[in-house]
Fold these 3 entries.
Entry 1:
Amino acid sequence: MNKVVVAEKFALFDEKWSPKIVGELNGQYVKLVKVQGEFIWHQHEQEDELFFVTKGKLDIHLRDQRVSLEEGEFFIVPAGVEHKPVAEEEAHVILLEPVATLNTGDVRDERTREHLDWI
Amino acid sequence: MNKVVVAEKFALFDEKWSPKIVGELNGQYVKLVKVQGEFIWHQHEQEDELFFVTKGKLDIHLRDQRVSLEEGEFFIVPAGVEHKPVAEEEAHVILLEPVATLNTGDVRDERTREHLDWI
């Protein structure tokens, strides 16, 4: 039972698109991820996914719109909705999603992380 | 499907200790609450509860310790753990907890909010 200082946790890693777990509640993980560049189109069939930006800018592309997030803004991608996160420059994002959620959703490729570490 | 600009939402209300709903995912609500002063001791029997401070300072008193949160820090109070939030000055907090969670947990008093509004 310790508090989490988000900025300190972000300072512990540099890898992009590789979420780290920093908390668990009610069957969900709180994760931190650094992003830069373009991720892949994917969806999570059963799970809603929250993106909260703490540094930089993140665009979440949906098939029919683009949601542009800046620091202090969040967006929830509903289950079953295809999305592609894109960040021109490095951005820091808090994710919230069920424990079972895979980062690439219904797609498996070299970006898929089957196992996530706690930091 | 709209993004949430947290600071804009906080600007919509002034009432203390009265959480407003700003998002829902996987059976949980994302809530915003302004706090100042001392809340009551309570617990949530089944639900873990996350407190993320976006402005000011919040102390979460537990029976055996005190967790002091500042901006950009969060703490998860596990289900069944008695806690009392205290803020000397106004603080802004994002809460995450199951839809069914009552703000005063196992206690009902004049601070209990049976119905929460979406903003």
Entry 2:
Amino acid sequence: MRMSLEISLDFYESLKEAIAQRADEKVKAMLEPVRAEDLSAILYELDTDDCVFVFHLLDDETIAEIVANLDEDTRQEFLRNFSPAQTARWINHMDSDDAADLLNEMPLKTREEILAFTELEVARDINDLLRYEEDSAGGLMAKELIRANVNWTVVQAIEEIRRQAEEVEKIYSLYVVDEHNLLLGRVSLKKIILASDQTRIADIYEDDLLAVKTYEDQEDVAEIMQKYDLEAVPVVNARGELMGRITIDDVVDVITEKADLDRQLMAGISEDVEEDDSIFALTRARLPWLIVGMAGGLLGARFIGFFEADLALLPAMAFFIPLITATGGNVGIQSSSIILQSLANKSSFMRGNFLLRMGKVIAVAIINGLVIGLVVFAFSFVLEVSVQLAITVSIALFFVVILASIMGTITPLILDKMHINPAVASGPFITTANDLLGLAVYFTVAHLLFKF
Amino acid sequence: MRMSLEISLDFYESLKEAIAQRADEKVKAMLEPVRAEDLSAILYELDTDDCVFVFHLLDDETIAEIVANLDEDTRQEFLRNFSPAQTARWINHMDSDDAADLLNEMPLKTREEILAFTELEVARDINDLLRYEEDSAGGLMAKELIRANVNWTVVQAIEEIRRQAEEVEKIYSLYVVDEHNLLLGRVSLKKIILASDQTRIADIYEDDLLAVKTYEDQEDVAEIMQKYDLEAVPVVNARGELMGRITIDDVVDVITEKADLDRQLMAGISEDVEEDDSIFALTRARLPWLIVGMAGGLLGARFIGFFEADLALLPAMAFFIPLITATGGNVGIQSSSIILQSLANKSSFMRGNFLLRMGKVIAVAIINGLVIGLVVFAFSFVLEVSVQLAITVSIALFFVVILASIMGTITPLILDKMHINPAVASGPFITTANDLLGLAVYFTVAHLLFKF
């Protein structure tokens, strides 16, 4: 029995030394107890020559698993060092969904070259999977599953399990089909074990089964599996034929990627970057939204410019510019984040109508606006500004909170209708828009109240 | 075979009508095909009397599942309508982890009253689970699992599965222990099915098994299960004794909750609220961070106040205040979000040393700062401001980008060391701090360059 293996820096250092010395036996012995998932992490740190050396010490099955675990960029770069025939040998050992993902990343020519070398059955499965959109249930599923004809006996089903045991690593259920491959239900392995050999599958299978269609969105699949606590879900085509199976590990990755993507969008990062990416990649991912924010800032500067005369008369007006813009930004992000949460949780089937929702948003905004307006009014005396300016700021803040709430609520809903990820609405976009909105409200209120 | 059930508004309306008429048979017939997970969603929409009516039509097992699915607040409010004896009857049907979670939410007195009515074995399991911290592996695990002695034969193991079949709904593996309950390894159900009856467990079990300790953090458990694609992981105590099992469905919830919490913190929402919570709850969750932002804004106002004389001489200085604060905020959030991603992904075991990381952060910041500074310098001519002011703004922006990058990088690292959720650093906190930082840089540079 073994605890989870944390690779220590010591281990890594001595491994690197052994690799540098090309000490075959030593490296082999060191890597022997390391899991494929941890080997991938190690390979990220090695240069290509060292990787190639390590690979010739490992068996194809382990390499297949490592390659399946690598991230897209590294994998593509890495596989360029190997021939299509070599890559095909690894693909023969991969699960069909991982193999299809890998080939999907490749130029069509390379893909065809590799498929020419894979086993016939493997190539057929992969070609079948390549037909589906990457983010659909079909793109997520694997072909590996155990299919049992409804007319079989338990002993026949067990024979099928034995035949496929190598191929299908994780078996939770047998999917029961008729002679036309129409999905009828499932039998859990538990039931198979407890049934007598001659029991008919027809007598023990559950027909109350959740299945997803090949064209369903992967996020909907994730929601279904999460809601009903499923470890696997069968995938059927429009005719109801059993096409594949999605397992929970792939769905967990979908959930994590979605959360990461939302966080990036909220933070105004336009590409999937990590701390250890290159300086160039990091800059490229960050500049676009910074430029958007800058454009907003320049527009704001232009706008305040219209009030230069007012400012010359009352420079204290400038004191409150950061307060106004910050409040607008903060309120907008809060509002859009609450809507984001609602959109993510589609299963709440009763959201009430749009006007009711907006009414509530405005009610919350009025309370927040009143509190903030009053507190700022009180504190403006500490800042020794005129009562007139204090009133201006408070009134402006009140309206900024309300308008920013409405903007923050409506923007993600509109983006979602336009099939743009609504998380964009919680990022620099909303902050920039609300900065401008806030300035407009503030200077308009000031201009009216002071009758410059 | 059935597709995932979407509850339609029509169905809900006619159900509500039937409930209002207290039409026992009709309601029963309507609810019969609905899964427990969907029943929970319906119950959220009913008032307490209607819920109680619906409950008397359902069997204890279904109710147990519904109650386990409710969220904490609703559940507590709801259970107040039932006696401890009644609650105990439902708890008898729950998985031990769900039961422990439920009792954990209750006052000690109620908890003891309920436990007094549960079956002895159930109470023992629950009491065992209540000992662990809620966010540890022990707090996440369930006691339901199949334990096989290493000296058994396959047929003995199957007998054990039969004995426990009712209790343990999902069986993936048998956990193999010695006579002292020390965990030795596991056998998959697949292997059990394919082995002959008289095969000894000792000959077929895998000893290369991942297990977690009771005291491990639930987020570490989630990371391990995700990395190694596990559908279940056994939990052992410090002595290595098998204590329970964590299944992937609970870990998926951990991952989702963590993502939701991070998003809330980034958006400056201090409590777990949803769109359909009360106006009061929504306001309470939003005001704290708005007040923080406001305090920052007032400090900013105070700070700009020091430069009132400068502003009177050159009102155009105020034009660029939103640009400066927005840029600082955007850069800060980007930086902290990248660090957040690194912190979440602890498995990258080689992050390099701190100085190298900061060097890279500063390199990226210098490039971004140069680009933004130059673009703004170019555009300032469109705005018809003096060359001197354009230079001031550009230089200030350059330094703001660098300082905000450093702040955004260091803050989450410090929070993490202090065991505060580092996602706080990507919220209004960093924006407010960077607003102030930006203002300080801008007015200092201006004061120096213009020699007011």
Entry 3:
Amino acid sequence: MQNFEYCNRTKIIFGKGTENQIGDETAQYAKSGSPFRILLHHSGGSAVRSGLIDRVKESLKKAGLEWVELDGVQPNPRLSLVYKGIEIVKKEKLEFILAVGGGSVIDSAKAIAMGALFNGDVWDIYERKAAPTQALPVATIVTIPAAGSESSISSVITDERGPWKRGANYEYIRPVFSILNPELTYTLPPYQTACGIADMLAHIMERYFTQEPHVELTDELCEGAMRAIIRNARTVFSGGEKNYDARAEIMWAGALAHNNLLSTGRIGDWASHAIGHELSALFDLAHGASLSIIFPAWIKYNIKENTPRLARFAAKVWGVDGAFYDYEQAALEGVFRMENFFRSIGLPVKFADAKLDPGKISEMAKRAVNFGPVGNYQKLDEKAVEAIYRLAAE
Amino acid sequence: MQNFEYCNRTKIIFGKGTENQIGDETAQYAKSGSPFRILLHHSGGSAVRSGLIDRVKESLKKAGLEWVELDGVQPNPRLSLVYKGIEIVKKEKLEFILAVGGGSVIDSAKAIAMGALFNGDVWDIYERKAAPTQALPVATIVTIPAAGSESSISSVITDERGPWKRGANYEYIRPVFSILNPELTYTLPPYQTACGIADMLAHIMERYFTQEPHVELTDELCEGAMRAIIRNARTVFSGGEKNYDARAEIMWAGALAHNNLLSTGRIGDWASHAIGHELSALFDLAHGASLSIIFPAWIKYNIKENTPRLARFAAKVWGVDGAFYDYEQAALEGVFRMENFFRSIGLPVKFADAKLDPGKISEMAKRAVNFGPVGNYQKLDEKAVEAIYRLAAE
């Protein structure tokens, strides 16, 4: 087990009706004196139609808070809107950012929070040319369980001029609190629910696939969380769209999947995220769908690499029996079951399923290793990444 | 799943050699200007003999910190020493409390931290006659993985005038940071290692045994953590006293067991702790040993109460097969295996094993329900508690 530091300061407020606490919770961050002014950031879509934004405004108003609204966040959130948000925050002297939505809205809010206090171009932070030293406080009301951005230090933004999709990871942007009400997820389109499930499973798998030899407690926690996600996903996709408990298990798992508890003492892989990001950047494919395509191919590519760990994954997460007779066969059976699971909830597992053009593979492989080889399970260079794309395109 | 709030702000610094960071970490809490003065609290025993206290002092000195030392903490930490600590902190105007030791030292430090800023008798807090509104910051270097006090809101103190053993739970006393180096546990006497293992297992079992029907993610996390503890305990007790990884898994599990993540969405039981506390108060029995005696009896007493959950515990944690043919038989087989496990690491599971006097049972039962019935799995009155003591004395 590796030495580690772990601390997660995000306060999670979880359960039915909790979005109505938003005004009182936010007001606790106000400095006394002048009225507390916040940026209310959202997509302008379903959160408005469902009446959630109105309820949020009512709660803010009751608590005596003032806000400026910025909507229009799209999936794979755009840098241009981040720039606009930074301008508004500076001009209006806003002190706090409230994101209402999924990972895209939260990631956009985090970028604005950094940019508002950064002397320079915020994109330089994502390009790893600069590092921030502070950020405005961010809080969230989560409507899509997926990215785990509600208690993570991560933000992923797309510069549409490239297009480039880049991530930044800083403790400053961990939300101060996040409100998670599973009822808000009842009306998600099935495809978005499924993409969220792939995303949270991938967050755990990226941590699970490590070469660190003795990480038994976190292995157990990862496996248990993955089993709980898979079982409850089946419930939701078998007529349980409004099954509170199943939605709740998935929502809480989505936050835990990415809050770094599950990577304590180990070094995660993260190649599949980097490889998948290019599918999103070039084809505007949903993040979760990029992962359901890339992860099975990643395991197949790595089948000779620490095969016992891949077999353990198959046995403990996918219930593959006979794992101890032929590790490789067991591991491949695990991939087969994972692909079936993804398909059963409506996700693509091959290029063709999502109508992606395999003609772009060489270009994407080049772009994916822009900062050097990706992954830690084994380092993957351009050739290896290309091979993974080809396995996914077969 | 119940609504919940969850936040754990303790920064965990985990791994080899981390105790040498103590000076620099502590210095971050100093207000600029005057020298930062802290109370260095420990038992005066093994932490001194091993040279740990000297290393700590060297690190504090290097960071420019000043300290006053208060040693003498005993297992089942005493109120009289807490009073002494409060007096010293007030007189010397100390601003920060550093606990070096196990749960007893940390709990004593937390009591002093509350008492130093409390206008009245600190014991009133433990008697539930008063509530604190603040506390000095506490940090810890953990030498015994057991109580989980290093990232919990709990403190348990014994008033030797009764004797009464009482707990207090306040967010104010959650340590600001805790340093956990598994190497420091290599030289623990086997009995202390074993008591710690029983304590952390009990912390998880208290949370696991709930009547909340849909808590699947946390069930998985609890079961996985318990399996990891049991397997690594077997390694340590099979000649692995200095097996870093096994010690590390146990130490990290001990902190997670009691940081409240594992109780999110559910209401725990906690009867066994209350019932066990009387064994410690009357016979000065180690806390872990009181739990290895009481928990098997508690399950036997509850065998008709939500038997499927008891059977699941037997199946998932103790590997009992056939759990789905006869729940009650499976549950009892689980208890049998738990008792065998406790015995295998040198712990008592019956009154006679620890030479406890069954003549005190009626008195203890009366005392245990001093504040009313205990437990939530089912409420236990004086008669029920007495029956559990009798099952443990059989």
